[in-house]
Amino acid sequence: MLALNNLAVAYHRRVVVEHMSLALAKGEIGCLLGASGCGKTSVLRAIAGFEPAYAGEVHLHGEKVSTAGYTLAPEKRRIGMVFQDFALFPHLTVAENIAFGLRTLPKRAQQERVNELLELVELQALGGRYSHALSGGQQQRVALARALAAKPDLLLMDEPFSSLDTELRESLACQIRAILKRQDIAALLVTHDKTEAFTMADKIGVMDKGRLLQWDKPVTLFDRPASIEVAEFISKATRIRVQHSKRQRISGSIGNWPLPQPLSAAPDAELHLLLRPHQVKPCDDGALKGKVIRQVFRGNDYLCEVELANGEQLYCQAPLHLNLTVGQEIGLLLDLQQPWLFDIATGARVV
Ligand SMILES: Nc1ncnc2c1ncn2[C@@H]1O[C@H](COP(=O)(O)OP(=O)(O)OP(=O)(O)O)[C@@H](O)[C@H]1O
């Protein structure tokens, strides 16, 4: 449905995105996730045809629509777009906003399609309202209905929920995912919000400084991150320097720990061990000792920061009943059933 092959985007010859390759199948929802300025919107604009490809290609339905020196016009790409600010026309009603892209259809067909879309986004009762009289979530559903009106093959969404509050974002992301799935439409969303990405997407691309670090299913990004940058971007974690020893063990400031499986790394290799909070647990008789220096109440548990004797700090997940206090010395147990280890020189994951 959508394929990017080695795409590069540049402004005045300054390359802001390069070596971008990914594919999205019909009905699949993808998400580009990355910090502000990493090039997400530029990729979206190149897919829509608003920016030319500086190098590489954009393919839609198997057809090459952008390559250096050729850009198929946006209106010929059968793409719908939803923007951050909804961009609804204030002087038109909800129904008229949705009908905007259907002007070439006969009046009756327009009306039928608008009713279908109002039902799809569950706004049947609000067709006659103006956008100023709608909540942010309702406005975004109108923007979605308008983008879907002309039955595009691909929907592009640029930070569609960023102006909404956190709770609404999550519920709207779920609703919009369900609507897109019902319509079996492919969509590519860009955001810097991880929760939004994980709620919405079948595939996530983690971007950094104009490059795609990994394009994978959310669970794969979490379980098998390709690099330490991806792992750290995806989840709260601490990196600790360790040494691989022959007998399936790692050692360092955290002590000496067995691994569940042999590693491909050379004996004595210097590695980074990435510890996520759920892998570090308070344990009375833990040989590894640390001092609680901060803790945040999270409802079901505490997220603690613990300082080791050498000054390194770890996140630790502590159950409520332990009643830990800041300054308290505790023992720690590491759960290394699934250790995340990375080559120090390349940052690549070691398995
Ligand atoms: N029209 C433009 N002319 C020149 N440079 C641009 C233009 N648009 C974006 N840039 C630059 O390209 C880079 C990538 O910007 P882009 O908007 O694609 O990033 P982004 O990840 O979408 O950021 P954000 O999340 O803040 O929207 C930035 O350095 C930005 O300053």
Automatic annotation (TrEMBL):
Coiled coil stretches, renumbered: none
Pfam families: ABC_tran, TOBE_2
ABC transporter domain location: 2-234
Any GO molecular function: ATP binding
Protein origin, superkingdom: Bacteria
Keyword terms: ATP-binding, Cell membrane, Ion transport, Iron, Iron transport, Membrane, Nucleotide-binding, Transport
Name the UniProt record assigns to this protein: ABC transporter ATP-binding protein
SMART domains with a match to the protein in the record: AAA (SM00382)
Organism whose genome encodes this protein: Bowmanella denitrificans
InterPro entries the UniProt entry points to: AAA+_ATPase, ABC_SmlMolc_Importer, ABC_transporter-like_ATP-bd, ABC_transporter-like_CS, ABC_transpr_FbpC, Mo/tungstate-bd_C_term_dom, P-loop_NTPase, Transp-assoc_OB_typ2
